[in-house]
Amino acid sequence: MSGPVSGAAGARPLHGTFKQKLAWMTVLVSTGALVVAGTAFMSYHLLASRRAIARNLAVQAETIGLNSVSALVFDDERSAEESLAALRADRNIVTAAIYGTEGNLFAAYAARPEDEDGIDRVISARQEDTVRFQRRTADAFRTIVTDGKRRGTVHLVYSLNELFADLAGYLGITIVVIGVSILTARFAASRLQRTFSEPVARLAAAAEVVSRTKDYTVRVEATSSTDEFGMFIDTFNEMLAQIQAREREVEAGQSQVQQLNEELEQRVLQRTAELDATNKELEAFTYSVSHDLRAPLRRIDGFANLLGDKCQSNLPDEGRHFLARIREGTQQMGQLIDDLLNLARLGRKDVSIRTTDLSPIVSRVADALSRDSNGRVIDWRLQPLPTVACDPALIEVVFTNLLSNAVKYTKNREQTTIEVGAIQDDGGFPVFFVRDNGVGFSMKYAHKLFGPFQRLHRAEDFEGTGIGLATVQRIIHKHKGAVWAESDVDAGASFYFTIDAQPGAGARQTLSKGETR
Amino acid sequence: MRTLDHIGRVAALLFAVLASVSLSAQRQAPLSEVTVKAAYVYQFGTYVEWPPQDPNVAFTICILGEDPFGRALDELVKDENISGRPITIRRILETRNTDECRILFVSPSEDARLPAILKSLEAKPVLTVGDGMPFLRRGGMIAFTLQDRKVRFAVNLAAATSARLMVSSQLLRHATEVRQ
Which residue in A64, A74, A247, A342 is a FRET match for A7, CA 20 to 30 A apart? Predict the structure, then answer.
């Protein structure tokens, strides 16, 4: 779809509409002008005709009156009727009548016999000179006066049919002229269309093609005229050329970017695979080392135990004390190995996401910790928690670690308060927190908090392996969440975490098995 | 026979009654014959032109012989004028006094001496008016006639013209007969 586009295809609706609009405009203007002119002419004709009729009737009535004075004087109806019969020359006169001084009918004339009934037998003796226009007729009364004496009255009834016929004629002519003007307007519109709407239609068709196919190689066929349309088309073509050039540049740039992206992706994949392999090796190593370390450790512990049992009497007090320290050390190391194994296992384990109510988990953990707290009074403030999608077993591990930490670092406090709850972040998602009034830590070391074997306190003050928060972080990351802490020395500590796992996301987790986080 | 005769009489009576009713209905509108004649006499004055005369002299209508109009003519012309001149009515018995007369009505009582009267007026601009067609035949200018119970008139134009009187065509139009 490239090259010049002709106006005919594709854009017919606009094409037709423009032509129709032109035709309508022309017709509207010419018809409007004709209707106004016709109305004006007819109104003027009506007014002028009425004036002429009134004048004509007055003159005719006066003439008849003067001609009939002697007939009235000498009571000669026949003569008066003859005078009236002269009105036959004017076919618009329907009836005419002469009345005596008393208003009694003296002589009458009717153009047609059936009109005779319409003639009044008596009129008012004081009838004034008037010309009255009725619906179909004009009525003229004229007093006959000679020598200052009233002799009688002439009454003429004039038919307005001819006037209406004239007006109908005008109307007919106006309608015919309007018809002709509409035809002319259509013709003119089709001529105008050649100058105006055809280029517009071609432009519209081209624009439609461009917007539909995004093909900027389309060009509008230039018109021969140098008018605004010609300029418009030239500008449009130029614009298309510019867009086409820019499009090419963008395309070139895009393909380059795409290539770079692909390379980058390739590299990322490669690195991930390498990292994966390394991580696995490391995990395997950690696991096997931990596992392998257990046997000798158990032996040390076992023999130290035997030594204590069997040779208790042979050992001096100092020896028994050393033996107790050995056993203490092995137990601590055993704990360390267990924690390490757990941490390593987390890396291999798949999370199984379920919709989980967190409140019972937290209660359970808090109860267990209360039982093991050697009679310490702990003020648990457990807010109701929402139901979220997570691996309940792992989340229980998270709470166990966080709450046991809280219990641990508040052991020097006279009153222990541990608060668990959830607030909402800006997006409306829950942010869980565990807050204690313990010894806290300096935010200076906050970055070390979640690293394995990182400890901010001396083991003499607070026992522990330094694996707990690393485990927490690993679980939270497996739930696509985040964990962080806020604290200050001696001001208690607050641990926050979020969970972004979706229900059913377990499948995805399964798919991504083997990837190391 | 008696019955038939009786019916005939009743029918005749009925016819007479109907005729009289219809007649009275017809006669209802027109004025009395005398009044109409009086009016016509006065109106003739407006349709006839006399040779130039002193405009200050009254227009005189004379009645020769027995006056048939009574007060009718006097009443009629009381406030009227002809060509701006007041009208006087004179009743005369002799033709000697006709010099001032513009219109002379010759009463039927003077029929016997009509030739002499007309002779005395010869060549004088006096419009002579009388009753019946014989008046016209004997040289009178305008004669009243009755036609369909209506007062009409005939004109002897020759006589009027010879007396230098111009009779309006308007007047001639209404005449039953115009003698040239």
Answer: A247
